[in-house]
Write a structure and sequence with these properties.
Elements lengths: L10 E5 L3 H12 L12 E4 L5 E5 L16 E3 L2 H10 L3 E2 L8 E5 L5 E6 L1
Parallel strand pairs: 1-3, 4-7
Antiparallel strand pairs: 2-3, 5-6, 6-7
């Protein structure tokens, strides 16, 4: 059966309480300029290779904070990524596990993961 729905993910939504703060934090984390436009007063789309990350302050509630990672960010140097995130002041949740990945929290408490690529 042919479906009109593509086998592609266009974006992953992350609930955030303060769109300006989160835009700056995520852009700093990813080494991107934070001069992009906030859409409709509550959305910021982070351009990525692959699916975009969509920060959304309209969907934020304390109950919808991501307690497990819905995706992982890649790094060619997991040790450097760990040190960078630690130095950013983010709450680190795990050490580097199996020499491959670690978890940490964004300013709203959403759990994120970085994996060796």
């Amino acid at each position: 059966m042919n479906s009109p729905i593509l086998t592609q993910i266009g974006g992953v939504f992350i609930p955030v309480s303060d769109i300006e703060r989160s835009k700056d934090w995520y852009c700093d984390l990813l080494g991107l300029p934070s001069d992009g436009e906030i859409l409709f007063g509550h959305l910021f789309v982070i351009p990525m290779t692959g699916p975009a990350i969509v920060l959304d302050s309209r969907i934020y509630t304390s109950e919808c904070v991501l307690n497990t990672p819905l995706f992982h960010l890649n790094s060619h140097d997991i040790d450097a990524a760990y040190d960078f995130v630690r130095q950013s002041g983010a709450e680190i949740l795990t050490d580097i596990e199996h020499d491959h990945w670690f978890n940490f929290r964004d300013p709203d408490g959403n759990v994120l993961m970085v994996c060796r690529s």
